[in-house]
Amino acid sequence: MKYCEETTRLHPLSIAYPTCVEKINNIIYEETNPENRSKINRPFNEEVGLKLDKVKENCKDKDITKKTKSVDMVLGLKDKENTKMLLVDFKLNCRGINSLSQGDFTNKIKCSKNLLFGGGITVHNVSLFIFNNEFLYKEEARHNINKKLNNLPSIEVLSINELKEKYF
Predict the structure, then answer these.
(1) What is the pLDDT of residues 35-77, one digit of tens each?
(2) pTM for this structure?
(3) How far apart are CA 25 and CA 23, in angstroms?
(4) What angle do CA 14, 17, 21 make, to 5 degrees?
(5) Are 21 and 8 in contact (CB under 8 A)?
(6) What is the rounded CA–CA span in Å between residue 84 and residue 123?
(7) How many CB atoms lie under 10 A from the CB of residue 13?
(8) DSSP state of 140
């Protein structure tokens, strides 16, 4: 399955909160610490994603959303006949695997799926966690992250470049 802007824009949350649909490069920029923004790779053009954190901020029912964690972005995917939503969380400021927790990852996925529930578009069975290209290319970083997450089959660890190559 590949990225589909139409699927992204037609999700009911995108329609209800159109200001939460932003260019992917802008989302990457916002998810990066200010001191690292000039170094981070932003290889996308006009492609957009639904910024789920911003949806939560704008949601009318704040009692439900204020306690939930969510992934940073949701993308629409499409193949010949199927559409799905892909959960994407950026870990661009991660400097070491000790700050990562399996519970945090699985909780973000669960809460994000709950926010998207009832939208009529299935959530993809794999969620992406995107790390800084340089961090992932360090010796054994990817292996150690997967090991820390117990090699969960529902989580895929990618760099920004790999996200673009695989899904666009």
Answers:
(1) 989 888 899 999 999 999 999 888 876 655 667 889 999 999 9
(2) 0.91
(3) 5
(4) 55
(5) yes
(6) 5
(7) 21
(8) T
